[in-house]
Amino acid sequence: MTETSNPLADMNARSREVFRRVVEGYLQSGEPVGSRTLTRSMSENVSAATIRNVMNDLEYLGLLNSPHVSAGRVPTQMGLRMFVDGLLEVEELQHEDREKLDATFGGNSPDVTQMLDRIGSTLSRITRGASLVLAPKHEAEIRHIEFVSLGPDRALVVLVLADGHVENRVFVPPKGMTPSAMREAANFVNAWAGGRNLSDLRKQMRAELESRRQELDVLAGRLVESGLALWEDAGTVSERLIVRGQANLLPESDNSEDLERVRSLFEDLERKQDIADFLDLTESGEGVRIFIGSENKLFSLSGSSLVVSPYMNAERKIVGAIGVIGPTRLNYGRIVPIVDYTAQLVGRVLSDRTKG
């Protein structure tokens, strides 16, 4: 089978229906679907033997798999991908789900992280999966930066943004740092900060530090680098991954292999350095994307799926993402519109706050 071939396009109507019903049955029950079960639901009157022959063909194509010799079939990862891309029927957003999501955005709290935390909890309850929310980076223009000594091994960097947002971070300064060196470093940064956001300033500072290393005290230069680097660290307040509903991923069985799989997933969710990868998943364009099993580069294990959508600010720039993770037998048709609607709501709220 070549990379450009499309088994779905080459199937006849019967094979397509068998494939679709196997996948839908598996997504609904989580159990293998047998030929006798399908004889009761097929649109044409066919024997179990005929259906088994079709299933064998689909298994040969790599779309179905038989977990046990005498059992029915389940879709492979390739089969699920083909179903999602070619046969998935996305449902209308249910009125009850819409009301629950709308209610999450009530109130006038200025704390965006708290709002996103509520959204994560609501998404988890609605979908019965684990929700993931990447909080937006704060990219307003910088008004002022200050370095404050708190002791021989602790310093505070204060970042004041043009929109009034203030962030404070405690960090370990270079050894031998003096108050005068801190003032010199702050003056150096503030001379370049006007009209730039933190990302732009960081790039400019690195270039300047290289070209003016002799002019700027070495300790002050290291202070600038370490202070600004704080905002690069994944998992900080300005780039926070919110995870809710992990318990929903625990399998109902006592199968030790399933429990180990979920434990590995929790470990992946805790890897803060992977937060940037979560947003990278969405950068190919707006709209919902579905990652099945090992396609999902954020999570190392197969056996899980991620339905994710970016949300944008008033300038239509992607600033964060909303997602739901669960087993590969997620109800994709129901979850896709939920994730899509939530991402649109978040983007709209953030844009309205920026305008206000």
UniProtKB/TrEMBL annotation:
GO terms for biological process: negative regulation of DNA-templated transcription. InterPro entries: GAF-like_dom_sf (IPR029016), HrcA (IPR002571), HrcA_C (IPR021153), WH-like_DNA-bd_sf (IPR036388), WH_DNA-bd_sf (IPR036390), WHTH_transcript_rep_HrcA_IDD (IPR023120). Pfam families: HrcA. GO terms for molecular function: DNA binding. Residues 114-336 form the Heat-inducible transcription repressor HrcA C-terminal domain. Keywords: Repressor, Stress response, Transcription, Transcription regulation. Signal peptide: none annotated. It comes from the Bacteria. PANTHER family: HEAT-INDUCIBLE TRANSCRIPTION REPRESSOR HRCA (PTHR34824:SF1). Belongs to the HrcA family. Negative regulator of class I heat shock genes (grpE-dnaK-dnaJ and groELS operons). Prevents heat-shock induction of these operons. HAMAP family: HrcA. This is Heat-inducible transcription repressor HrcA. It comes from Falsigemmobacter intermedius.
